[in-house]
Please model this.
Amino acid sequence: MKKLVTTIILLFIFLITAFFVESNDNATNNSASKPIVGILQTVSHPSLDEIHRGIIAGLKEDGYVNHKNITIDFENAQGDQSNLKSMSDRFIQKNAKVTIGIATPAAQALANEPGKTPVIMGAISDPIGSGLVHSLEHPGGKVTGVKDMQPIKQQLDLIQAFLPKLKDIGVLYTSSDDSSTSEFKEFKRLAQQRKLRVHPYTITSTNDIQQVAQTMAGQVQAVYVPTDNTVASGFSSLIKITNQAHLPVFPAVDAMVKSGGVAATYVSQFDMGKATGKIAAEVLKGKNPSEIPVKVIHNYSTIINEKAANELHLQIPTAIIKQAQKKGSIIK
Ligand code: TRP
Model:
């Protein structure tokens, strides 16, 4: 009898121990062995939020789902440089398998980390000029991803269709922002070929928008806004002033048209995000970022804000309406 009791107790101890060892094993499988994907977003505004959603969709389409076989660690720096640095540091400390930077400052912060952790660029306007890669075809290092290439020629066609007599156009952007500066230069080059006079209006923070908008009002007949993170964040304060001054704003992306811009020919932010997520998936599967060419999306849609055009007493050209009906949308 005593022997039987001892056996039963021993068996119990064995089973309990086995159970704990097993559940411990599961716990390690659940967190530590799942690769971490660190996503760093520069700031919140509708376009970058859409890129973020696209990234999640792109990863998913190629088999990577949060909590299932990857752990997505998402951080938003809220436009703060010191956040960008500390959040990038944290991804490295956590041993992220791949990191993704949404907008130039985030990608730059991630790329500045020591070590070889891959960095996937999410919609970066000037990957070479901002020092992220040496070549789009052969990035050659730990950084690759998606370049945000504005269809500036089509955007100028659209602006001139609305305003055939246009002579002076302002470009509003942030002087310290590498991405906007490069878009400004390209815009200026192409606009000058059309004999337009291009006036730069630079800001250093959203606080400057109001005053600069008032200055522009007397000097130009239209305003172009590139993919500038600061202007995108303070877009409504710009539109308030420009509407009062009857000054039409033609932005680079659909989100800014939805917030009061007149019209745009644009690249889908979601699609750029999706392409970014798919490149991250390739890297998760073992491909070296140095061997993945930087991707550019050449697929354009047109969006018109009919209400904004009406308020500004702007006639919407039939050709542009057709363009938007064929591929794009009209906001009534
Ligand atoms: N191209 C920007 C950069 O390189 C990021 C960006 C993408 C953006 N889409 C945008 C900025 C729309 C403003 C609005 O930083």
Summary: The two ends are 88 Å apart (CA to CA). Residues 47, 103-104, 123-125, 148, 179, 227-229, 232, 253, 269 surround tryptophan (CB under 6 Å).
